[in-house]
Amino acid sequence: MEWCEPPIAVLAYMDIANSRWLWLSTLPVVSVVLFQAAIFLRRAWADGKEMGLSDEQLKTGFKTGVISAIGPAVAVLVGMLALIATVGGPVAWMRLTVIGSVAFELPAAELGVSQFGYSLGDGDISETAYATAVWSMTLGGTGWLLVSALGTPHMEKARQKLGNGKEKLIPIISSAAMLGAFAYFLTGEVAAGTPETGSVAVGGLVMLVLLRIADKRDIQWLREWALGTAMIVGLLVGVVLQVTVGSWW
Amino acid sequence: MSESEIDTNVADGSDSSKDVYENDFVPYINKWGRRTNLLAVALSFGPAVALLTVFGILPPTQAVIGAFISVAATYGIFWLVEPLSYYPVLGIPGTYMAFLSGNISNLRLPCAAAAQESADVQTGTPQGSIISTIAIAASIAVNTTLLGVGAFALVSAFQALPALWQNALDSYLVPAVFGAIFAQFGRDYPKVAGVGFTLALAMTTLLELGFLNFLPGYPLYVVIIVSVFGTILIARWMWENGMIHPPDDS
C-alpha cells in the first residue's frame, strides 16, 4: 500500500463520491445487514436457551464475538483508507459492510476504471469511469449474495455426502474444513515474507499457550481474550521483524 | 472408555435440542436468510442508482459488461467455492450472515471460532451453530459501527499515524489471526493440522512455480479447493482408520 506517498490530489469526481446523496444511498442496504443480524441474534438466543445452552454460554458467545471483532475491524478500517481515497467514503463504507473485503473491492474497482484506460490513483479519472467502478463492484458482489441466498439450504446435502451421514464425523469434518481453509490462508501469508511468517507463528504459539493455561486453571476470561492477545502480540512481532531483519523472501 | 460417555451425553441432550434446531430454528433462518440476502442484492445497487438518478451518470453498457466479465473471470469461481468451503464451519445462519456482511476469513470465521471455544461448544453441532450465529451478529454490530465512525471521522487520525504503524496494522494483524485460529483447531487435531498445512503449502508452491497454469483463469481456486476438501477427505479416512478422535467435550 502507498502510505508513504504524498496525499492524493483531490479528484474531480470526489465531490460526487463523498456527497450526501451517496451516503443516503448506502443506508438501505446497510440497514438490511443490521436487520438480519438482529433477527438472527434474537432467534438464536431464544432457541439456544430451549436447546439447553446456558445464559452463561450465550453471553460468552456474544462477548467473545465483540472482543474478537475489534482488532480485525480496525485492520479493515485501515485497509478501507485505500478505498476511501479511490471511491469515496460512502461507497467504501458500504462495500466493506456488505459482501466485500478490501481484497475484492479494490481489484473490482480497478477493473471498472480500467475499461476507460485509467488506473486507480490516476488524477484525471472521469465521472463515468468512477461510475463504472461502482457498477463493477456492485455486480461482482452479487454473485456471493445470490449463491448464499439460493444455495444455502442445499449445502447440507453436500456436507452429508462428504461426511457420509455419520453423526460423530461431523465435528471432525468441520474442524478439517476449518484447518484446510486456514492452512490455505496462512500459506499465503507465509509466502508474503518473513515478518508475516513471524506473525503467523507467534499468533499460533500465543493462542496455544493461553488456551492451555485457560484449560488447566479453568480461567474463562482468558479464553475470551486469547484471540485478541494473540493478534496484538503477532502484530508486534511482525513490526519488530520488519524493522530488524526485513524480509528474506 | 470416554467415547461411549460422549455418546450418551449427546443422545440425552440432542433429541429435543436437535428438534428445536431443525424444526424451528433452521426453517426460520432459511426463510428470512433468503429474503434478506435477496433484498440486499437489490439494495446494493443504491449508489449506482444514485449516480444515475441524482447526477445523471450512466456508464456505457459496453464498459459495464466489460468490467463485469473481468470481475467474473477473476472471482466467479469464488462465488461457488467460498460458500461451499466455509459452509461446514459457518453453518446455515452463518452462511447467510457472513456472505451478506463480507470480511469472512479475517473477521467472521475467527469470531465464530473463538466464541465456540469460549462457550465450550463443538463446531458443526447445533449448539455450535447457535453460538456462531450470536458471535457473527455481535461482530457485525462491531464492524458496522467501527467502519461507520471510521469513514466519517477516524480517517485523519489514522493518516496521522507513522507510516510504519499504518503498514503494520494493514499487514500483520491478519496473519496473526490466521495463525491463532489454525492453532486453536490444530490443538484438537494436530495430525489433521499437519495434513492441511502440507496440502496448502504444496498447492501454493505448485501455483507459484506455475505448475497449475494449464488450468483456466488464475488457478488460485484450485489451491483452496484442494486444501479444504483434501483435508476433509484425509481426515475422514484417518477417522475411519482410528487415527483421530473427537476431543472429549468436558
Automatic annotation (TrEMBL), chain B:
Keyword terms of this UniProt record: Membrane, Plasmid, Transmembrane, Transmembrane helix
TM ranges: 38-58, 64-81, 134-158, 164-185, 192-212, 218-239
Protein name: Uncharacterized protein
Organism: Haloterrigena turkmenica (strain ATCC 51198 / DSM 5511 / JCM 9101 / NCIMB 13204 / VKM B-1734 / 4k) (Halococcus turkmenicus)
